[in-house]
Amino acid sequence: MTTPEHAPALRPREEWLLEVVEAFDVAPRLRRVVFTAAHLDELHYQPGQALVLRMPLPEGGTGRRDYTIRWLDRATQRLAIDFVQHGSAPAAGWARAARAGDTILAAGPRGRTVIAAEADWHLFAADETGMPAVLHMLEAMPAGAPAFAWFEVDGSRNQMLVTTQANATIAWVHRDGARPGPGTLLLDAVAAFVLPPGRGQAYLVAETSNVRALRQHLIGRGMDRSQIRSEGYWRPGRIGGHDHVDD
Q1: Which of 51, 111, 229, 242 is spaced 20 to 30 Å from 211 by Cα?
Q2: Per-residue pLDDT tens for 28-77?
Q3: Architecture of domain 121-244 in CATH?
Q4: Which class is domain 15-110?
Q5: Rounded to an integer, what distance in angstroms lies between the CA atom of residue 209 and that of residue 186?
Q6: pTM for this entry
Q7: Do 171 and 146 meet the contact criterion of CB atoms below 8 Å apart?
Q8: CB atoms near residue 225 (< 10 Å)
Q9: What's the whole-number average pLDDT of the chain?
Q10: Do 16 and 37 meet the contact criterion of CB atoms below 8 Å apart?
């Protein structure tokens, strides 16, 4: 059967009815939910991008929640999303209660924080909320690519295995029981780092005020705004939403 020349091109799928396969903890504050869906092998995205989940809300209805794709196995049509377990947020509660057969509607992918292939080196800074995105990006980097990553977590039990072919230097910054949120741990670690020669690209994904401080610091050290991809994934006291940090 031939397709008429005037027939419209097929649009990429934008909505997915995700069905839970299993859910389990991968770290004390990080719960992984593995999903399947019809035609999931047709989902094309770049590591670092997210799906928008129609998350059930306690008061009824649904809210939009952006969650990074942790991995996708096209052969088995399985997709994983990691949920940070913090407080009584609807998404954290949903992930804790998720059981095989549960469903949730998702849209996407979306997101601008993806690997800049033209960069000479790459700098990452993230807390637990940004860690799934950064780990996936590191896994996808080409062999030998210079990469430097800092992860802020509560302690050593929250560290994750980093698998990458990049020439990566990984550092874990511990809060040691302090509350997550605004602070200088990531900023202090990056400030002590000597930027390599060449054109770098920074990827900052964490609490909004910390991302903003990191962005301003790197701009002050000579990086152009176009060299910094920065997203505030959360703010204390806010349920849902994230910030595009461009100032």
Answers
A1: 51
A2: 989 999 999 999 999 999 999 999 999 999 888 999 999 999 999 999 99
A3: 3-Layer(aba) Sandwich (3.40)
A4: mainly beta
A5: 11
A6: 0.91
A7: no
A8: 11
A9: 91
A10: yes
